[in-house]
Task: structure prediction
Amino acid sequence: MEKETYDAIVIGAGHNGMALSAYLGKSGWRVLVLERRLEEGGGLSTEHYTRPGFLHNLHSNYHTFVGLCPVYDDLDLVNGSDGVSYVHPPVQMGSIFRDGTALTIHTDMKKTHASMSRFSKKDADTFMRLYKEVKGFQDLMIRTLMYAPPINVNDITKALSTWKVEEKTEFFRAKLRTMTINDFLNKHFEHEKVKAMLAFHAAVCGYYTDHVGLAVSFPFMMGKIDNWRIAIGGSHRLAHALWRQMRRFGVTLLPASPVREILVEDGRAVGVRVDDGREYYAEKLVASSVDLTQTFKKMLAPEAVPKEIMEEVDRYEYQDGSLFSVHLAMHTIPTYKAARFDPDINQAWVLNLGYENLDDFTNDWNDIRSGRVPEDPKLNIAVNSLFDPTDAPEGKATGLIRAFAPYGIEVMGSGAWESFKKIYMWRCIRTWQDYCDGFTDADILEAKPYTPLDITAKLVNMVNGDWMVGKIAEDNLLSKRPCEQLSQYRTPIKGLYLCGSTTHPHGFITFGPGYNALQIIADDFGLEKWWIEI
Result:
């Protein structure tokens, strides 16, 4: 029987695997993508989770790299007949505080400055300096540091000096590598509510505010605080756009085909075997977009992996916590008591309800690391129906509550969520209602929890419910992610590459891991770089 052979085999049809396969297909390669689940997209998952007609993004809801990430342009993923349409909400984010005040972040930075000035004119001025200074270097820094194979932290310091960033800004002169995000905020800002709003932005991006060294990334994040976008029709529409491009370039996608083994001959990856015994062969390479444990401990024979690499895989750490979500089908879009202070809060897309100061974040991180579910949940609220008329039946609305939570609950472990999830769901709903102007149980058609355990059950790549697929910490970023030996997307097994979120930069819909792996593959195989090279 003739072997079924391709130039490249990509394991996993998440957004990184799909993007890499589309690039290689457009480069003229014959590419096969194998996906464990019945549908492509990974975290780009949109379902009728509560009731028919209500669209819920179970994982990725916020897309903050549209217009910054080269993949959108290279693969023509936005607008057009085959692309996804995005809305850029005018009121991007907001914080509602217990005293009835609110702070809003707008795409119009003059309005952001005005909102922030109600709490501290000094902080509003400081924020605007930070925002403008980072914007001046944003394209250079994000595209160079995120969309290129990673350099080490020392080289970042040299790069900042070469680009004269440190000379031209006040915010890069401090020893950011030794600072937490809390430290950075305390150094530059004075009002607790302003600091809470900015810390919330970092936390929702997966950055724990008390980790030493993460201050080095914080100014970059502030440069895109006004770039939160919603995919019309749900985040899965981006997966549709990727799939259409894959088909256009001749890529073959096989769903319901979990890879059991990566086939290695004479130290080289030559193909894969799936669970039902089918085998597929690759003349050039195999690229894995799944997590390290699956790749190295489940798909490779022990003798194929050098001992020092297996030790690094065993040492790899995931995020301290996960997310507990509640998805709601609603009769109405809630409004807020704080609208009396700032009417714009009723139009804010990404909302913080509960974080009043930096200590609130630190206390939650400590609870989560100890396996305790925060007693008083602090909420991230998003009502996509404010901007997407397709996500619910006419006159209705879809709602999302998220709260940071541990994967395992104290000694009971992750299984405790099954008996606790509805209790915590209603605790979160009651917290939301406390901030609302007349939002009652009668306004809720259905509410359904989605726990950290559910995350891992659906997407095994997100180990322990870790939606970033690896700890965001100074010792797991850039050339240290997932370890120095694997940070350039190559592995010790010839022809086997990594292209998933365990590599630089990390999870979230950045496309960075797939795009950066492409650069290494292009160099190794002499591919002509037809794309916009950074």
Observations:
- Residues 5-81+232-316+470-525 form a domain with the FAD/NAD(P)-binding domain fold (CATH 3.50.50.60).
- The chain has a mean pLDDT of 94.
